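tool=predict chain=A
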Amino acid sequence: MIFPDVDDQPRHPSQLYEACLEGLLLFLVVGLCVRGGALKRPGVVTAVFCVGYSVARIFSEFFREPDPQLEQLSHGLTMGMVLSAPILLAGIALMVYALYFRREEYRSASR
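tool=predict ok
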């Protein structure tokens, strides 16, 4: 796609990628988790959202034009990728906690 009034270079429409991934696809995935009973396990929906959002954001960063006021980080990383990494790690940790450790609490409470 060529954006007018920029430099007439073809670019990926990363805004559309982000809207589809972080909006529509993530909404469907979270909705399917809720319909599948994820609300019975506290923390699962939040974990799915955190993991899904951060993965979608990191993926779409490969197609974005870097912000001119921010310098390019090493190894091809962008600031969006770096800032999404803690959210990804927190989502994974919350998913492990919600699915594994909370199960142990439910087992001991039902005895």
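The chain has one domain: 14-66+75-110. Helices lie at 14-35, 44-61, 79-110.
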